[in-house]
Amino acid sequence: MPSALPPPGSAASTSTDVLIWVGVLIVAVLALGVVILFVRKRVFAKEQHHADNWIGNLRQMHRRGELSTEEYEAARRALTAKFTGAPAPAPTPRPSRTPAARAEASELRAKPGFDLTGAPLPKPAPPASPSPPDPPASGPYDRRPPP
Hints:
This protein is mainly α.
């Protein structure tokens, strides 16, 4: 009975093996492409969630009064530009506010060098006179303990 398959090592057998391996490689490349698409989708979804978290934190700080409206808007615009890839807006000049202006009404602050009553702080004591040098020792391990 004649065999339907060509004998091993013949030209027909080699071309069939090559076609099978080319098909396997094409399927492997397509599967790898699908895996890469899923990974990219997850990575970019995490970045979007990260941006939402930052803006949410800014919003909470604004509600608690830690940020003024101008500071909140500037930070929100900068974060939005960073995460969307758009060019950052030109920085707006910050209003000059002293630290006392940010303090709550019940918080007391004093100028540097003064206490809360307005009296000047005591001056630091002058440094003490330098101590006399140790007498020379005869060897590196012959030091005497200080008196």
